[in-house]
Amino acid sequence: MLVLAWGAALLLATHFFGNWEERQRNPNQSPQSVHGDNFVEVQLASSRQGHYLAGGQINGQAVTFLLDTGATAVAIPERLAGALQLPIGAPITINTANGRATAHRTRLASLRLGEIELRDVAALIAPGMDGDEVLLGMSALKQLEFTQKGGTLVLRQSTPQ
After folding, report:
1. What pTM does this model have?
2. What is the widest separation between alpha-carbon atoms in the chain?
3. Which domain CATH number covers 73?
């Protein structure tokens, strides 16, 4: 019985530590929105490494975004694009940190972060991109106002009156 109790305690500790570690990596797994007069706003906390990661959706399917103001477009790993069933468009040569590569254009019917929703967003399907994180580049961010201060990034979308 003592062995089972220790085993259960170890299993629970592993589960809780895994959740704690994921919250440290991505403190914005379910970003909350604030509504004001003619705007919706999402505040994101930076990770321990200073990055802004956030849970969101592409075409109604859950993804993790890594906000990247240095990226010209939203960039989606090729494997994830396949899982999201994104249409593969024309090839385009891109410059990455690892040199030149051929990506493919695509369009996202919807991109959602909290209650901020963007429609018909230009994106790239990027071969050789590891992981499941979508780079949220300027093709999406240019449609929002954003400010960063003290480890918090505020994204604001104006809403029609």
Report:
1. 0.81
2. 65
3. 2.40.70.10
Q: What radius of gyration do the chain's Cα atoms show?
A: 18
E-strand stretches of the chain: 33-36, 39-45, 53-58, 61-67, 74-77, 91-96, 99-113, 116-126, 133-136, 145-149, 152-158
Q: What is the DSSP letter of 98?
A: T
Residues 6+ positions from 10 with CB-CB distance below 8 Å: none
Mean pLDDT in consecutive groups of 10 residues from the start of the chain, 161 residues: 67 52 66 91 90 95 93 95 96 85 96 96 91 94 94 91 64
Structurally, the chain folds into a number of domains equal to 1
Residues of the domain holding 57: 1-158
Reference 148, options 50, 29, 24; nearest CA is: 50
Name which of 55, 75, 64, 68 is nearest 121 in CA terms: 75
SS percent in the chain: helix, strand, coil, step 5: 20, 45, 30
